[in-house]
Amino acid sequence: MKIADTSGQDVVREVPKSRRWGLWLSGAVAVVLLILAFPIVSDWSQAQASVPLDRIRIATVTQGDLTRDVSIQGRVIAAVSPTLYSPAEGTVTYHVDAGDQVELGQLLVTIDSPELKSRYEQEQASLDSAQVALQRQEIQTRKAELEAQRDIDMARVTFTAAEREKRRADEAWAARAISQIDYEKAQDDLENARLVYEHSVADAKLEAETQVFELQTRQLEVNRQTALAEDLARQVTALNILSPVNGLVGNRELDQKNQVGRNQPVLNVVDLTAFEVEIAIPESYADSLAIGMAAEVSYNGTLYHAQLVSISPEIRDNQVIGNVRFMDQMPPSLRQNQRLTTRIILDEKPNVLQVSRGQFLETGGGRIAYVVRDGLAFRTPIETGVTSLSSVEVIGGLNAGDQIIISSIEPFGDADTVRITD
């Protein structure tokens, strides 16, 4: 028996016009979405590598002032740490111990030197003797002046008397009251008296010059002996060694009551108000360093202004040694050999393109960066300039607002496009 199909029961129904328009609209939207998504899908399909977002660091290129600097661990040293020496041989007596706080002018050490004290007493006695000799010479000079003046006065009296006798002889000779011999004798007596007077005056002048010379000689002896005595007095005073600064006693070089030689170190004192920071700067920065550069020293979260005051002329172990001095104020409670972070400001460049530093500089040689756009990173050649602790100058290849990968780009190899996944 033949079984009939259901074709006779089918009824042909027409599709409503509104539904037909909806189908056309959905198809158009799908086509537009496919067109818009085609570049993205195309880029994603062309990506040669992929990397999770949480494994990279991204930074934005900005424009602003760039400070080129270098950060170094420094060591606190005493800028003023005088070593005190013994001025003479003797026995040392310490009045302070290592680590004691001392003030300027405080007695630290006494050196007992009998030999030096004896020399001082001898030279002082010689000075007293020289001063007595000078006083004696002054008396002798005055006495010689009186004797010379006496001789002049007596010669003048004799000369005056001879003149008077000569006038009497002239009158008598005119009256032919005396003989020619007596007259000539009166003339000779006058000439003799005149010569004696003139010689007395000349002798007095020469004697005065002699006495002045003797006084000068004695005075020079006194001056010389005074200098010797004062120098020894200074050395005797220096046997009491005083603190040259307000600070802290360092090491004692000898034991108490030990013998000490001349110019032998006794102890050193650290000036607590004059600390500096010694820094070892990498050789690569040597050509950029200059005395007077600004610096910052970090201590307990506070920055202290400082200045680079000295640079070693030689390089040791690929480092240059320099000293940084505090400018306005010094951190409290510093200790020698304490470690402090020091920042040297090498250069400042205003209004430049810059981006945060990262491993991309080393792995890309400062010539390659990956610019991030729409979930993709595109390999881009760049040119970089100076670097600071946190930023690097961008000379070419990037614009302000660009985002780049600043972590290591070594995993990307030579990929031109890298897909960034969530």
UniProtKB/TrEMBL annotation:
Keywords: Coiled coil. It holds the Pfam family BSH_RND. InterPro entries: MdtA-like_BSH (IPR058625), UPF0194_transport (IPR050465). GO terms for cellular component: cell envelope. The keyword Coiled coil applies. Residues 93-271 form the Multidrug resistance protein MdtA-like barrel-sandwich hybrid domain. It is found in: Cell envelope. The keyword Magnesium does not apply. Belongs to the membrane fusion protein (MFP) (TC 8.A.1) family. PANTHER family: EFFLUX SYSTEM COMPONENT YKNX-RELATED (PTHR32347). This is Efflux transporter periplasmic adaptor subunit. It comes from Pseudidiomarina aestuarii. The lineage of its organism: Bacteria, Pseudomonadati, Pseudomonadota, Gammaproteobacteria, Alteromonadales.
